[in-house]
Structures are given as C-alpha cells and as structure tokens.
Structure prediction request, 333 residues.
Amino acid sequence: MPSNDIQTQTRLAPDALGPTITIGEILVEIMANSRGNGFLEPIELMGPYPSGAPAIFIDQCARIGGAAGIIASVGNDDFGRINVGRLRADGADVSAISESEDYPTGSAFVRYREDGSRDFVFNIAKSAAAQVSLTSEAKALIARSGHLHVMGTAFAIPGAWEIIDHAIGVIKERGGSISFDPNLRKELLGQPQTRERFARLVEIADLILPSGEELFVAAGVDGEAAAIQALFARNATEIALKRGERGSSFFAADGSRIDCPAFKVVEVDPTGAGDCFGGAYVACRRLGMPANLALDYGNAAGARNVTVMGPMEGAGSRAQLDTFIATTARAIP
Ligand code: ATP
Ligand code: MG
Prediction:
C-alpha cells in the first residue's frame, strides 16, 4: 500500500499558482450516425461538436473546478465560435485563442467502422488550428500559469513547439510543473525533430499520462514494470496509466502503486476519454486531492464521456461526477 504521504504529496504546482494551460488544436467533429466504411456515399452526419484533444482536456479541467486556459487558433466562423463559446461557458480562459481571418476552423469528419476502428477526414494542417503562434496574449497567459500540460498531438502542429518551448522555460522559472500525454501518431516519431522534442518532454515532465502502447513508446522499453522504472529514471515523480475499460493506475517514484477499477458503462463514443481523464486528474491533483481520489475522478470523467455522442459532450462538473460516482457500478478488476 502506498504511504499517505505519497498519496497526498505531488510535485504538481498548486492551483493557486495559476491555471493549467495547454497548447494545440481546436476542431469541430462531425460524425456519421451509422457505422460503416468511410464517406464514399451520402450518409447522415451529426455535428458540429467542439473537439481537439487539448480542448477536451482543458474543458474537463475547467469543469471540475481547476483553473484552466488554452493557447490555440480558430477561424472567424461558427465552428470557431461554438468551440470558444463552450470553453468560455465551462470556465476556461480563452484569452489566448487567436482568430485567423484567412483560415477556417479545423475539422474532423469521423465514422466508426463495425469493428470500432475509425475513418477520418481531417482538415487540420491547412486550417486555423495550424496557425497557432506565440502571440502577446499567449505570452501573457503563460506568464501567469502554474502548470503546462503537453499533448502529443501538438507535435503535428508546426507553430506549437515554439510556444511549448517558451512555456516550459517560463513555467519552470515560476515554480510551476509539467505533465505530458504522449498521445501522438506513431508515424510522427519517424521525424528526428519530433523524436527529439518528444524525448525532451519525457525527460522533463513531472507527471506522465500514457495509455496502452504509449507507455512503451515513451519509456523506450517494453513491459509495464520496466517501462515505469525507465520513466522514473528521468524527472517524473508520478505516472497515471490509462487502461480504458480496465480503469487506471497510479505509480509513484518511491515504488507505490494504486489501481483504480473502471466504472461499468455502455460505450457510445470512445473519443475524448483519455483527454477527460487527464483534465480531471491534473485538476484534482493541483487542487490538493490524494492520488486515489484523482484517479477516481479521472476514471469517472473518462467513463462518463464515453456514454455520450461527441468528443467532450460528457465532460462533467464536480457535482455531475460526484453523482456519476455515487450511481455507477464499478467493473470488477
Ligand atoms: P483516447 O481513446 O481518448 O485516446 P486513452 O487511450 O488516452 O483515450 P483510455 O484509457 O481509453 O485513454 O480512457 C481514459 C479513462 O477513461 C480510462 O482510464 C477509464 O477510466 C475511462 N474509460 C475509457 N473507456 C472506458 C470504458 N469503455 N468503460 C469504462 N471506463 C472507460
Ligand atoms: Mg490517449
């Protein structure tokens, strides 16, 4: 059993130091109502839904009561407005979301295949999402932030690294902390520069939140125990491992571990589970909660989100997640 110290202590900076910030893509998601292969014939679609991994993360972080802000770019269009409106309404700082006059808001069309895998049509690289840059508003948000959460998806956006690099320096200087969700397409690691940046994040993050194979990719070693150990040989003091419908686990550098069983839900739309888990977990830890409680809220946030259509439609407030926890059975570990 972990000691109470480890459960309660965290290297993550307290919420009072300033908001958790993240950097990267804001998108709308438009999804097929039916399962099947791709978009080669007219089908019924639903959307737009606010989306983008960093946006989902920061929305959940704000909803549960953590101070939260995002650096991103949208177009001057309704797809941008639906996103900014949602994030603002849920309590996130949207002052560093810039608006591009030249590019439309990013989008992702998605259709689930019968086997649960997905077909996508993305417009990210040539959209406003790729126009994110280190604006004066972004610098101002970074200057008052207490924690940086880096999403692997940001490595696909050219301008994001300059902002991340700047934020790392400023936040460390302020006594803030850093978390990393290695969530990125594996092919991107074929590029030496991306590999180098990815490795740097693994090197300096205080908290790492991998899921599935990402643990091995981040650690550069196969096998759960070996990979965890390899990550603790770097700067990390805390790992929150996401296990989908098997829940999640907390590992601390002193060897302690907590396994938290998942909630039993009917999965309607798996998109966004990991991002909601992360947003809730980071907020809870920064608000001073022990690791077991943060895992519970993370599991609840992820599970609740998969019961609803839309990438962040199931993100929950603290009260909604308390109700969810009180009324939802747990899967047997
Ligand atoms: P994503 O698919 O968004 O990339 P991820 O792979 O990063 O997600 P997951 O492990 O799939 O992360 O989900 C995060 C958390 O959400 C899990 O640890 C779990 O607690 C919860 N969760 C996800 N899917 C389910 C499910 N089908 N049933 C119950 N809980 C779930
Ligand atoms: Mg993930």
